[in-house]
Amino acid sequence: MMFKTCSVRLVAIFTLLMSSPLIADELSAFDKMNGQLNIAGGTAHIPVMKKAARQIMGHNPKIHITIAGGGSGVGVQQVAKGLVDIGNTGRALKNKEMNLGLNSFPFAIDGVAVIIHPQNPVDDLSQQQIIEIYQGKITNWRELGGQDRQIHLFSRDEASGTRSVFSKKLLKGAQLATNANIVPSNGAMKTAVSQDMGAIGYSSVGYIDNMVKAPRYNHIMPTQEACASGEYPVVRRLYMNTKGVPNALTQAFIDYIYSEQGAKHIQASGYIALDAQP
Amino acid sequence: MSRLIGYWGRLCALFIISIMLILIGFILFKGLPTLELSLFFGDTAPLAAMMGLQPVWEGIWPACVGTLTVVLCAVSLASVPGIASGIWLASAPDKPAQKVFGLAVDILAGIPSILMGLFGFSLILLLRGSFFPQANASLLLASFCLALLILPYIACATQNALSSLPKQLSVTGAALGMTQWQVTYRLLLPQAKSGIMSGLMLAIGRAAEDTAVIMLTGAVANAGLPGGLLQRFEALPFTIFYYSAQYQSQQELNMAFGAALVLLILTSIIFALLAAIVRGRNRSKFGPVKSLIKEHIC
Amino acid sequence: MQSHKLTLKQNSWMQALLMTLVVTSGLLLFAVFCFLIWFSLPVFFTETTSVFSLKWQPEQGRFGILSMVFGTLSLAFISTSVAFIIALGLNSFSLLSRRRWLVALLRSLLRFMAAIPTVVYGLAALFLLLPLLRNGLQLGSGYSLFAAVCMLILLILPVICVMLDNITTPLWQQYALGAQALGFSPEQTYMQVILPHCRVNIGGAALLGFNRAIGDTMLPLMLAGNATQLPSGVFDAIRSLTAHIALVIATDQGGEAYNSLFASGILLLMCSACICLLSRYLMGRHRLEQPE
User: Fold this and answer.
1) What is the tally of structural domains in chain B?
2) Taking 90 as the threshold, does the pLDDT of residue B257 lie above it?
3) A81 near B CB under 8 A
4) Chain C residues near residue B9 by CB distance under 8 angstroms
5) What is the pLDDT of residues A194-235, one digit of tens each?
6) What's this model's pTM, rounded to 2 decimal places?
7) Do C272 and B182 touch (CB under 8 A)?
């Protein structure tokens, strides 16, 4: 009996020892570094950034990583001005932003989907219906086959990459109704929609869990697999942006995100990892 | 007809007392169960976290330290200029220079705090464009803006405290051959000590609870312990705001309520100290009590 | 015992230090005004019309902040009026009531209310008031002018109440006995002797509350929904100027949205400064009196 427990323990320790070089490998790049790394921008990236920062700071407490949100607009603005080292965006850079000397590093595939309260019986929404809802032409869930309840619109602020992807690819540039409540991040959108039975909003597909429900879009279920295969059309990439060539600590962080450990963090957050661009 | 005011008064009193009981009770009800070590330190060992050896995730300890640091920095930046301004304002209240300065201080006591944050933001832009290209949102900037925000309170409290002292003190001092500085430093300031202390307490309370200024000048949601004057930091009011708007799990919501309770306890302690000072001043011989709340008091 | 010369030298040094500190503070305070005015100059020298219009639709190139101005004003007017009436009630209670222990309790409660952080008010409202509006009374999504007004009333009530107390207590001590001797009841004394006597000062106190209501950021940001529309009813979502600044601070420099930021800032500053001056003028006579 004791022999069995001992051998189980030995096997466990052996496996741990064998695997730790693998983990340590990707983190060992941070061994001799110290300093500050400031990250800001898209709120969809925050779960991935937090997980990575936790591992790195736990491995080397001399490194100090701060993470702020604010939306893709903040990310571009602050990294272009040099206020942060990495600016996250949930959309590709516009032309005038490219001229600011920024390098883009796409690291994940994500989608933008409509979300509603979990107890809302509506299961399927067509693109035209969503456009009319957000224009303010449809105002009651009854008109969509749901309960007799007013539709409460939720939208994001202007700096949001999620909003610009939603507006361009799903709404096709239609004008948003002015009575939409504005929330400042993906997390806030999820929280707001999960509390209100008549709410409708949109968020990153990676944020969707059992707090909210994502109805089918033109009969397609918005999942990460559908995004990766191209079946779900409203997709976007998540980018890390730096100004010019990143410094050592920033480059190490970017490499970490592209590594296997980083891919695990990306998947755990609900996104699909991309490989590093050559 | 006038009897109605009696009924209305009683109704209002009942209304206010019950509303406040409900509000405070709710915060206590939601916050007290969360008050344990894991609220502050998450799953990091408390001692290692307090020494800064290991970063704290899912805990509000960095926010507590951040708030205390920024308040301390702001008050130390603002206290000496504030007391000096108050002394100057009280020394000759009818001269035009003092009147203009008093007016500016008064207006600044009343401006929206987000304008102070906007000022900090535009300061970064200006500095980056000219002679300090490393300027960034940081603890230093946030304490500087907070110091400007609380300067009027300290100045006004000092001025009120000094001007409520009887004229005989300064006149007698001058008659005895003391210089103006000696009169101020050895006679007036010790007598006005409690007034100045209450002004400082007011300023500390204001700095601890203000969110709009630090939101724009350096507070972020995740930064660990404050790493230095030129780095970003976490703060309790911002943590409450952030997690109340976007909690993703029950644990994060608990953090918001726990942080709210901690901040409430902090400001209540400051309030109790303030009340004790005011009561002590009540018993002193010089001057009646002035109201000492966050309205402008110049 | 210091020599006379040393004392004089020390005096002049300390006076110089004092003046330096005062001048520094003065310059810094002045700098706050200057910065805000300087950065908002582009607004007035470029397209004046576009920032002062009603529609805020940045994707269509419209950056009008007037709906935000209306939001701020409606928030401030409604909350100040209601808070003023409640404050009058509380003031009369504290003067007229015979239960002095209750009055003392109420006074401490009001001062404590001023010490409570604004975010805590917002947090409590988010989880008490909003579900009530949303699910209980079915009045929209809960994020509304009404919710923000309710909490703003609680925020500015201590400000107005304390000022009212300071104004009416010395008057009461002066006139109550005489009025009673003439046959007035306590309520009549309050309504017909005290209040008319100090109505100008009371106006100043109400303006202080109005100033506080205009300047608050967190309550409108958390509770009012931030929709850029003119509210058609009290239960619609609105955006205040302060919340607008907090939300839009992250946009491009030099763009129209950025100009709207500083335009909002300068409007708030002007408004706040004017109200401050007006209330100083109205309460002026009171300020010079020492409450006995």
Assistant:
1) 1
2) yes
3) yes
4) 89-93, 96-97
5) 988 889 999 998 888 888 999 998 888 888 888 888 888 888
6) 0.88
7) no
